[in-house]
Design a protein that fits this description.
The complex is a heterodimer of chains A (about 425) and B (about 325). Chain A is an alpha/beta fold. Chain A has a single domain, classed as Alpha-Beta Barrel (TIM Barrel). Chain A has helices spanning about 75-85, 105-115, 140-145, 160-175, 195-200, 210-225, 240-250, 260-265, 285-295, 315, 335-345, 350-355, 355-365; strands at about 5-10, 15-25, 30, 45-50, 55, 60, 90-95, 120-125, 150, 175-180, 195, 205, 230-235, 255-260, 305, 380-390, 405-415, 420-425. In chain A, α6 (about 210-225) runs parallel beside α7 (about 240-250). The radius of gyration of chain A is 21 Å and the shape is globular. Chain A starts with a strand and ends with a strand. Chain B is α/β, with parallel strands linked by helices and about 325 residues long. Chain B folds into 2 domains: about 25-150 and about 310-320, Rossmann fold; about 150-310, Rossmann fold, CATH 3.40.50.1370. Chain B is built from 11 helices and 9 strands. Chain B is globular. The chains are: A alpha/beta (about 425), B alpha/beta (about 325). The interface between A and B is medium-sized, with 28 and 30 residues.
Chain lengths: ~425, ~325
């Protein structure tokens, strides 16, 4: 199908483009975004993007689809609808499904289930160890062949440092990326909130910042030792960010991301035990939050992700320490990115790079670009129109977000996936 | 949805008692004033008043505690209420029922008041919020201790005791000694002491038993941390010792009860550093020879048994206030 996206402001961070232009799509690829159609182009459909921004579809480094195993929380169908409505066209899903993504068959099944044209491109992160148990290595080469783009442990740790060393050596052998969360399991044991004034007040078990920095120290040393490509997921503290900056300055190949919630919320938002603020890693102080905001702006943090984690209502209706962790995020990623950019007075091209070309580079996938010949994964959004975050409007099966009831700027008007219309805002 | 504490209604009246944090001074004083005449009822031949006649008080104990449950039961019975005791950790939750399902079932039995004890911080808050959301907050909730969060009636009875012996809160130095990290009692005490205007609050304990950031529970300078018992006790008017739970005694938090007693046990020698007329309090049950020496526990400075007596009166005051009379 040939589509012309008319009169939009095209922001393509990967190619340094920010100008008013039309974008032309044919056969699932971008054929021009110079304003003039290629010779002989006759549009079968047009999208009026007047007043809107046209950018590459968002690339999310962490979105739980809850398949296989947790279909009562969400299904591929519900979460793919959420992705399209959020302008997300490529996403990495962590291996903490049930069973975990530790066998090629499971990965193939997920890829197969996710291959419908209106679905975002799904890039599974394979389990680094069998059952995420931190003992035996998975068949990484086989898993990569089945479609895994990296190997990780989701939010679980490898207790045995020897195993972690071997896993990173093995991954480095094949040039695979290793994605790890930095949280020492011993120091985080039983913890449900940042170890600080709020946890002290509410009587909650704390997770101290040293849980992050000690794990980081281990992981960064092992990255240097093994030469593995290390990506650190969901950094939560200013001290942790400082260590990553120092490691990079020392020449260690490491990238990192932050979750959108952690740019906007702090431990204070827990208020009176708000179960939606039970996140992993925990929300830390406003000082940490501000450091993360600045770090993402200056590029010390490479990418912003939604850390989308749909949780059913029942699992959130319990005392704070007993609720399931996580928040829904696919439909909030773009508005929260724009909110951060506005508050930081950041050029949109830089902000959008953090959710398009930068995560695409980390995943090493052909996405996040509007260059001629690129796959036509495109997000068209109105930066001034608001989107209401409510149980009714969220397409994700998870309605669990601290932003419930809020109006946020940045409304997706349409999403194209490989040149196919995956979402269209009927309110427009 | 979680920005407001549901224990006060739109008119600022107390409808549940979840925590002493943010509770206005007038309400705390109001409860203490109301408790005073109830102490006399215990002296009468017929220890009953009809304030809660016809009301059903459900003791919902998701965590075992014979003593606290008994004090609430006595308080409710002296107010002429019907009392139903439920030890839920041994019944429905073991069958997989959720907390709120249990609450819904009991609410359907026409309960008027829930007295809730739970091992998780925030459970009574969740119940109160659930009752409000389902328009049933005519059922009152009293927190009888939740996780490490709060034990407001204990905090109130401690304030009653201090006022009984010391009258004016605004001239006192109060020391809280022991395992503050795991103590809901300490948190409730600290909130009340701050609200009632105690100018110097001291927390004394080893670093392993003090929560990070605890000094932020009071305005700057009013709450001081001491790791040295002797330093912390100097010139204190009130010494509130905390119970050390058995499971914390030997492990990564403390090496042994002997060493704890040596460093933080309240003995005649260490108590001598406080003011000569200092009172010694303990929420019970005491570990003699661990946090407190028998010679102190049995001394004339100890007001531990009066605390228990006042506790009944304070719980009667809270229940009658929540019942609206």
């Amino acid at each position: 199908m040939r589509i012309q996206i008319k009169n939009g402001r095209v922001i393509d961070p990967a190619n340094g483009i920010d100008r008013l232009a039309d974008v032309f799509v044919a056969d699932g690829a971008i054929v021009s975004h110079g304003g003039t159609p290629p010779a002989g182009f006759i549009a079968e459909g047009t999208v009026d993007a007047t007043g809107c921004i046209v950018c590459p579809g968002l690339v999310d480094l962490s979105a739980r689809l809850r398949e296989p195993g947790f279909e009562y929380r969400a299904t591929l169908e519900s979460e793919m609808a959420a992705a399209a409505a959020g302008g997300v066209t490529s996403l990495a899903c962590p291996p903490d499904t049930d069973p975990p993504l530790d066998e090629p068959g499971l990965v193939e099944m997920l890829k197969h289930r996710a291959r419908l044209p209106e679905f975002a491109h799904v890039y599974p992160v394979g389990a680094l160890t069998v059952g995420l148990a931190g003992q035996r290595l998975t068949e990484m080469a086989e898993l990569a062949e089945a479609g895994c783009v990296a190997f990780g442990q989701a939010n679980t740790a490898v207790f045995d440092t020897q195993v972690l060393l071997r896993a990173m050596q093995y991954a480095a052998t094949f040039g695979f990326s290793v994605w790890l969360q930095a949280q020492d399991p011993h120091l985080a044991k039983g913890g449900v909130a940042h170890d600080g004034a709020i946890a002290a007040r509410l009587g909650l078990t704390g997770i101290p910042v040293v849980a992050e920095t000690i794990a980081l120290a281990t992981q960064l040393h092992l990255a240097r030792e093994t030469g593995a490509r290390l990506h650190l997921t969901r950094i939560s503290s200013a001290a942790g960010l400082e260590m990553i900056r120092a490691a990079r300055a020392a020449g260690i190949a490491v990238t990192c991301d932050v979750a959108a919630h952690h740019l906007h919320l702090s431990e204070n938002d827990i208020g009176w035990f708000d179960p939606h603020c039970r996140l992993d890693p925990p929300l830390r102080t406003s000082f940490d939050r501000d450091a993360l905001r600045a770090g993402l702006a200056d590029g010390s943090i490479d990418a912003l992700c939604s850390d989308h984690t749909p949780v059913d209502d029942d699992a959130k209706q319990a005392p704070f320490g007993e609720v399931e962790v996580g928040a829904t995020g696919l439909e909030l990623l773009l508005p929260l990115t724009l909110k951060w950019a506005t508050e930081m007075k950041l050029p949109l091209a830089i902000a959008l790079a953090r959710v398009t070309s930068d995560p695409a580079r980390i995943m090493d996938i052909p996405a996040g670009s509007l260059a001629h010949g690129s796959i036509a994964d495109i997000c068209v959004f109105d930066p001034d129109a608001t989107v209401r975050i409510s149980r009714q409007t969220l397409r994700s099966q998870g309605k669990n977000t601290p932003f419930l009831g809020r109006e946020l700027k940045g409304r997706v008007r349409c999403t194209l996936i490989e040149g196919q219309l995956a979402y269209y805002d009927e309110m427009a | 949805m979680s920005t407001r504490n549901p224990q006060l209604n739109a008119n600022g009246e107390l409808i549940h008692l979840i925590t002493l944090e943010g509770l206005p001074r007038e309400i705390i004083i109001g409860i203490l004033d109301r408790a005073a005449p109830f102490t006399e009822i215990a002296e009468r031949e017929v220890k009953k008043v009809p304030l809660l006649r016809g009301k059903s008080v459900f003791n919902l104990f998701f965590e075992n505690s014979t003593r606290t449950r008994t004090t609430f039961e006595i308080a409710a019975k002296r107010l002429s209420a019907d009392v139903i005791n439920l030890n839920i950790n041994t019944s429905s939750t073991a069958k997989g029922e959720t907390l709120l399902d249990t609450v819904d079932n009991l609410a359907a039995m026409q309960a008027d008041m829930f007295v809730v004890r739970h091992a998780s911080s925030g459970a009574p808050y969740l119940i109160a919020q659930h009752l409000a959301a389902t328009k049933r907050d005519h059922i009152r909730v009293i927190n009888a201790g939740d996780g490490r969060h709060a034990h407001p009636t204990q905090g109130l009875l401690d304030m009653y005791t201090i006022r009984h012996y010391k009258r004016d809160f605004t001239k006192l130095t109060v020391a809280v000694v022991g395992d503050v990290l795991h103590s809901r009692v300490a948190r409730s005490q600290l909130h009340a002491l701050v609200t009632l205007g105690v100018p110097e609050i001291r927390i004394i304990g080893p670093k392993t038993l003090l929560p990070t950031g605890v000094e932020q529970m009071a305005s700057k300078g009013r709450l001081r941390i001491f790791n040295d018992l002797r330093e912390g006790l100097k010139g204190a008017d009130v010494v509130m010792t905390l119970r050390l739970q058995n499971e914390r005694m030997n492990g990564a938090l403390l090496p042994s009860t002997q060493e704890y007693f040596k460093s933080y046990g309240l003995t005649p020698a260490t108590l001598a550093l406080a003011k000569p007329d200092a009172i010694v309090m303990h929420p019970g049950p005491m570990n003699r020879g661990v946090e407190i020496d028998s010679a102190v526990a049995d001394s004339s400075q100890a007001v531990i048994l009066p605390q228990v007596t006042f506790g009944i009166a304070v719980r009667m005051a809270v229940m009658s206030m929540l019942a609206g009379n």
